[in-house]
Amino acid sequence: MPLTCGEVFELLLAYILPPVGVCMKFGCGLQFLICLALTLCGYVPGLVYACFVIGFQHPRGARGPAFIA
Question: Where does the sequence pass through the membrane (predicted)?
């Protein structure tokens, strides 16, 4: 599934400051706090976590793609 323009923007923000990209997608919740803690421990763990969360998880309430069987 290709990335949307919004996801590309979030990934670019995550590269500069990982918690900001996560905050834009999920708000200031648990995902943001985990990313902030990992970023404070080191830039690379926060960056890896942010890219994973932005690329592979959907916010609650968001609908996934509809598959026709």
Answer: 30-56
Tens of pLDDT, residue by residue over 40-69, are 999 999 999 988 888 787 766 555 554 444
The model's pTM: 0.73
> What is the Cα–Cα distance from 67 to 30, expressed in whole angstroms?
30
Contact indicator for 22, 55 with CB cutoff of 8 Å:
no
Residue with tokens 């509809």: 66
Q: Which two tokens stand for residue 49?
A: 């976590």
Per-residue tokens: 5: 């323009």
